[in-house]
Amino acid sequence: MGFLKRTNKKFDYQPRYYKGEGNPFKIEHKLDQFRSTAGKNKGLKSKFSDAIGELKDSDKSVNKTIIYIVIILVLIFLYIIDFDLSIFLSK
Question: What are the mean pLDDT values of the chain's consecutive 10-residue runs (91 residues total)?
């Protein structure tokens, strides 16, 4: 079954006017070099731990904004399902 196995042909193409460092065809985001979660193929647990560590190291005002947005969305969800918030209030 050797005729079913195909390998990609590789060409040693060099762009004519490119005078820079690295591969000009590599697609990378500008901020990937500053992120610890981008670019590595890791397990799910290490991805979550890196994301939480990055969130802890980031700006505190961003964390407060995210918390406010989450609280507002939870309250909207509770309003939509007609959840009775009076159980949290004491008489």
Answer: 66 70 71 66 80 73 82 92 79 68
